[in-house]
Design a protein that fits this description.
103 residues; mainly alpha
């Protein structure tokens, strides 16, 4: 028996980013305009500047609490998240800009 709906919410959550990423890749590769980066960069930059420091404080608190409890796996996870927060702008720039420009 086939399902009644063609695309469930779970399927949409997987397919939509893949389609957008593929379209962004093709646009950056052939026309030099990565639309996802150009459209989302100003908003993402504002969100990171206002909430990035709060997230860092939260993660530092998590690391300190897990250190006091003696949970080494939690400390390693916290350090990985801490590094990820600082590297997030560079990672997003690499993933979405794809060598194109917004000019």
């Amino acid at each position: 028996m086939a399902k009644d709906s063609a695309l469930t919410l779970k399927d949409f959550a997987i397919v939509a980013p893949l389609v957008l990423g593929g379209a962004n890749f093709i646009a950056a590769r052939y026309w030099g305009y990565p639309f996802l980066y150009c459209w989302a960069a100003p908003t993402a930059r504002d969100l990171y500047l206002s909430w990035g420091q709060v997230a860092v404080y939260y993660v530092v608190g998590f690391i300190l609490i897990t250190l006091l409890r003696g949970n080494k796996a939690g400390v390693i996870l916290g350090v990985m998240i801490f590094i990820g927060i600082f590297e997030l702008p560079r990672i997003a720039d690499t993933m979405f800009r794809l060598g194109g420009s917004c000019g």
